[in-house]
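Step 1: inspect the first sequence and its tokens.
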Amino acid sequence: GVEVGPQPQGVARADVLDKMRKIVKHGLDFVQLFNEGKEFPPCTTEVFKIMEKVDYPRNKNGEIIAIIHPKLQDQDWQPVKNGDPLFLTLDGEVIPYQGNCTVYPTFINEAAYYEKKQAFVKTEKIKLTAKHLRLPVS
């Protein structure tokens, strides 16, 4: 599957549709070249691996008591280090990230995830290596 965004629910954006078309075209080009017998060399690429979903801070009644900090808003895939701000309480208190490694939040403050109790998803950046790839000759 291919998920392309961000875009608000129920909105069709031309720029996002164009990105999706390009991604699908690259995928189809790869399949065609692979089927024609092209050999692809080994490669390494960085990806983001999901660590955990993070909920909004809540009170004992389950009500949200803090919002995404302005410095985190619209910063999907950007590094967050120990002490960086994550949330801002309605009283103005900053709630920082407390962790021993750099994380890369994504799906930050997405409207579709409020009901799922998800403020963002913490990811880690890792490298994946692929061996050469070629269609076996029969």
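Step 2: inspect the second sequence and its tokens, then contrast the two.
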Amino acid sequence: MVFCTALVVQWDHVHLQDNYNLGSFTFQATLHKTGRIVFAYKELPIEISQISSVNHPVKVGLSDAFVVVHKIQQIPNVRRRTIYEYHRVELTKTRITNSSAVEIMPLPTCLQFTSCSACISSQINFNCSWCHRLN
């Protein structure tokens, strides 16, 4: 039996659509079972802060988001996608360089506890709205 403790996704030799000749990017994201996230950057042909956001967004970090697909009544078979983003964690673009890594540690949540007593005695410093004793 195999137990997975992490999921690694790697992007190899990715080019900017509007500047293909610039060179390629190679980077990866690792999602650990514990909630820890590691972004590793192997090859970056240009500083992230120098990438133009005219043709595509330039973001470094992570966020919760959802997509809503809207039908356009005036044009059949055409849909517009809108991304709604919230809880954003932005990383400093200048810190992302060749052979660098960024580690993001999860904040404590109720899900880490296996009993009500462990949750009640914890010092996780957020307002719990689920537990009847903490209100």
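Step 3: confirm your contrast with the notes below.
The two ends are 41 Å apart (CA to CA). The longest helix spans residues 116-120.
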